[in-house]
Amino acid sequence: MKRITTEAAEPQEHRTKPPTVRDVARRAGLSQAAVSYALAGPSPRVSDQTRQRVLQAAAELGYQPNVLARVMKGKEAGLLGIIVRDGGAPTAAEVCRTLMTRAPAYGYDIILTDAGNSATTLLRLANLMKSRLCDGLFLVGELPDQDMHWDAYERLGVPTVALLHGDERAYPGTRVSVERRSGLREALDHLYELGHRHIGFVGSDLLNGLKERRRTFVSLMRERGLPLPKESLLLTDFSREGGRDAMRRLMSMASPPTAVLACADLVASGMLVEARRAGVAVPGDISVVGYDDNPEAEYSCPTLTTVHQPIAEMADRALEWFQSRRAGGASSLDNLVVNATLVVRESTGPAPLDGPAKGRAHTGAVRRGRSSVPGG
Fold this sequence. Notes:
With 376 residues, the chain is of the alpha/beta class. It contains 13 helices and twelve strands.
């Protein structure tokens, strides 16, 4: 009895084989050695023009490097993993997107996973990434008040750079940090120049980085000698709904601040939504400043004045660290620092002459300040 099969009748030796480095070299008109150097990433051994020529030839042929073969030869796999605390967090998502976009220029591909706010899951994923031959890891975002057991993580022996980790207590290893003080000082200077003296802060205790922003704000206010009533320091959930709740509480005060800094754009966006619902003009009645400069800040209504974290620069510094390490350069830096700056948009304006309005939800009428945004 003949065996029925769905296999093609073409003999095995005539089937199409995956393209090899030799095929890429033939297509590019270069030596195999030059192609190998170019495929390994930016290198002084080949020019950028030659590397682009090789990459184009590889793409045309559909060439994929054999990662396992590279590792067995003692070379790096050219893979970096990202473990993000919470992929739904806007700033963390933007950092991941930027790393994935910029990594190929440094000779790396990226694998992305989400720890879902779990320290146990993060350790498991890190071990999985190691077994998948990743040359190193990015940890994006700190975990909320969880004992991470960093000694257990360090025993994995995976080179790691952390981004969006609040301070050294959140992650003791190599990290890209934002010098938050300069950005928050710019924000306070901006509000002070607009005539604001009663300035509040809406924060969250979810993460160490958020706590540090509140502590830095308090320190800068004291430096200026500005009043800081306890009720002007609000704690809320780290969410848009938390921002809405904070705005409701602000407008129920007997003497609310004329300007407020939010610990994050995520919270500030909720504050803007609640202000519109309550009939409070931003910035006519109260000015609002965010922190992060997420893409939504430019498209909120009104557009959000915010402290900008240079995410592209953060990504480049982290990738440069891995590239330097691969080339045998110095890789023992503990903290790579970038500076935060203020981006002024529509949500801040002159302090109202008669203090902030409380909105329809609380007073039945709305007082307008000197400056308001249509539709606010």
